[in-house]
Amino acid sequence: MATTATRLATRVKMTRQASRPGIHRRNPVSRGAEPLHSVKALRFLHPYRLALATSLMMTSCMVGPNFSTPEARIQGKWKKYDGISDRPPVDIDRSWWKQFHDSRLDSLIDTAYRNNPSLQAAGTRILGARAELNQSVGNLFPQKQDLILQGRGNVASDPNSIWTPSGLNENYLSTQALVSVSWEIDFWGKYRRQIQSDRAGYLATIAAYDSILVTLVADVASTYVNIRTLQARLAVNRANIAQQKKSVEVAVARRTAGRVGDLDVEQAKAQLATTEAEGPSIQTALQRAIDSLAVLLGETPVETERRVGSSGSIPTPPSNLAAGVPADLLRRRPDVRQAGLEAASRSARIGVEFAKILPSFSLNGTFGYTGGSENVSFSNFFNWQQAAANSAGSLVVPIFNYGRLVNQVRVADASFQEGLLNYQHAVLNAQREVQDALADYVNSSRRVAQLQAAVKAASSAVEIANLQYELGTADYARVLTAQSQRLAAEDALAQAKGQYANSLIAAYRAMGGGWELRNEAGVISPATRAQMASRTNWGNLLEINQHLPPDAASAPTPGAATQPAR
Fold first, then answer.
1. 95, 294, 313, 565: most buried, per Cβ within 10 A?
2. What is d(CA 505, CA 502) in angstroms, rounded to the nearest whole number?
3. pTM for this structure?
């Protein structure tokens, strides 16, 4: 056994010397002339003395790596654009959609926040993770505490001997009421590492909730902008249809007067039919957008169609945008925080798995009362003369596991390394998305201005071409060309305005704006809380002030996951 313990201690030391990115190391065992974990020292320890000694060491002896936020490549500033500043985000950015000054959009986002099923599901995952964390904290205390009530009748060779003239034979019936306790001492920090892992997992579910909320807010705003864009395109289509119908009437009148032939009339009708054919496709896209918005709001398409209305202007973004600096993404982007917290959770799992290789120390005991047939009454049963108690300490050393335990450590280490790489990728991807969105925002603004000039020129061209045609100084081909150019320019302008608004939405989505909504209420709705409370005793966990950590006003960071719950 001594050889086994020495080999395990050597394995601890060798493993702790391995260098990995993103973690800090410390010696997992105390150093001294006679380490407490050696078999020689344990041989002379009374179980109660062992409990006291190991309890004193619980705060300093913990195997496995200590997590720190891994390094990631972050540029100093965003690429310079006109209208983009690097000032820190202000309060208005927490509700960035209000910069559109559209009360209907504000109402839609509020409805989605309260009703969206996917967001509610993410909220329930937070509560589940909180319960798992509480369960892990409970493992620091005796893991098994059972009340055993037992009654037993002894077999009698002569059934008549069970009863005596004075009643039941006292030697026939025996009773016991015992409390059994078993406590595995957290000598190597297995349970504390599990608390670290579950706490990081709990914070990661909050970050995941925030990420879903950011996406939800952006999707509602983007879908609403698309609806308004399609309605604007439909209005352009109808206006051009009305204008082209007048052109057909002019061509028919000129043919009747003998000034033109059938060609002009047929060309005018063809142009009208082509323009009318575009309307149904726009209406189909509009209905699909409304249906998509209904899913986001958690209601039926009919309800959503009434909310949106049949017309409205495309939201106009502000001309300036505060993008901050790339380092802000580590705090604002929920998916970046989530990746860091998941890496922290996986880091702690290494210690959990490694502790399973090492010896475990347990204390076991029972205490209760025993009695016979003459002591079956309640008053006589709980009598110190009838008390029974025993205690024991145990040392369990895992052997002959054929590499299962050490390979489980390797699995945990590989998972942790994957988490580190996922975090680094999340940081790089976040920067890419913001940089793309900023470029789109600036260029979309320029495109709107250019298309506004194109629409103005195309409208003038149509007026001139119609006048020349009526005067007979130009053929109908020039009118058709001018009308086609105006229709294309007006339709492109409507789409460009929608793209400009969507570019602002994409920028705030990329910067992680909008998750602050969850600080104003709980993570699940009152209806969801009522359903869960009707099925299960959740204690106070369903109360709004229990959904999030005390510092919920600020975003949880990966570093916060390294501290065990207390």
1. 294
2. 5
3. 0.80
